[in-house]
Amino acid sequence: MPSDGKIRVLVVDDSAIVRKILTEALSGQPDLEVVGTAPDPYIARDKILALQPDVLTLDIEMPRMDGLTFLKKLMHFRPMPVIVISSLTQASCQTAMQALTLGAVEVLAKPGGPYSVGELRLELASKIRAAAASRVRRLTASDTPRTPPPRLAASPCMPSTVIAIGASTGGTEAIAAVLPQLPPGMPGIVIVQHIPPGFSRAFATRLNQMCCLEVKEAEDGDELCPGHVLVAPGDLHLVLRKNGDGYRVGVKTGPRVCYQRPSVDVMFSSVAESAGAHAVGVLLTGMGSDGAQGLLKMRQAGARTIAQDESSCVVFGMPKEAIRAGAAGRIVALAGMPQAILSAAQARA
Known about the structure:
The chain folds into two domains: 7-142, Rossmann fold, CATH 3.40.50.2300; 162-348, Rossmann fold. Helices cover 34% and strands 22% of the residues. It has helices at 16-26, 41-51, 67-77, 90-101, 117-132, 171-178, 199-210, 264-274, 292-300, 318-324, 337-348, and strands at residues 7-12, 32-38, 55-59, 82-86, 106-109, 162-167, 188-193, 214-217, 223-224, 228-231, 237-243, 246-252, 279-283, 304-308, 330-332. The chain has a seven-stranded parallel β-sheet, sandwiched between helices. It has a five-stranded parallel β-sheet with strand order 2-1-3-4-5, sandwiched between helices. Strands 9-12-11 form a three-stranded antiparallel β-sheet.
């Protein structure tokens, strides 16, 4: 980062209109500077070398070289924080999920989707700041294709137990590393991942294909059953409600909490109220403080609470705030998170 402290951004998109909208959306942000734009990956390569940006925004569908191919090359030869800017077609959302597996740290809907200009300005600036603070790793040949991790052995868990997981920047890959290792018969799991509308369904679909648990994007009134995982839809809060001997989820709009919708704090607070000591709260990598106060409420209600450790986080923001608040009963590296979750769920039994 240059001496003036500004985060330097390069915008890569084949649409001149989109390049203009993204550039204007960042104008006036005192800590951000668009140092250049590029209509395709070849020009982007030259400008990366010349301008040394801190963060790249990247379109997926471009001429001469598609975004995924460019991203692979970039993360191998010159790793840097990348935010994928994608349309909301089903194919584009799925491709955006692939980009996250290749090292992109964030995904955002293209202008003209669900965001107003004001919301785009807020969302894009926030994601660029998170990306600039992230740990980026070099993509190696061993990273693709990914070898599925071994699944933990199944053990008895109380059906009344609830597992709640919250994450933001870097969370899609962290969750994708954890869920496939959990055995069938796990207590019901609710997830809030900060992700735009449309992409949350593609994310849930991808998780469902990776693990033995049944994963879907949550709908209002869905029952939370053992062996099932419900993912909060983008731009909607998810809350847990007691329903007789079981639980259902509510999906609703409402004010942003910690600048987020869905908010981890909203979900954790509802889990503390509805499940109390029968719950396990997990806070993974992410920028900001969302989830810290909700996790504290869960711990105060008797739930087991776990935060990801600094060394394995892409961004040690949300877990750091939770630890600072005294909300984390345990601090665990991502590699040990599946076993920690399973052990906590068994302890509830």
